[in-house]
Amino acid sequence: MVAVAIIGIGCRFPGGIGDAESFWNFVLHKGDAVADIPKDRWDADKYYDPDPDTRAGCIHAGVVF
Q: Does residue 43 belong to any structural domain of this protein?
């Protein structure tokens, strides 16, 4: 077996989570980072249709800014 040293950690998650401490706090408190898709990322209203057999059926996402 080869020894491995973990010397750092980094992360970027939806909900503005940008460090390990924020991530673990988010998980501990059962956070929810799913939100309406920002219009500057993708105009979901342009494609959304509640009928699952047509166009897009989702207007929410976990978006990393």
A: yes
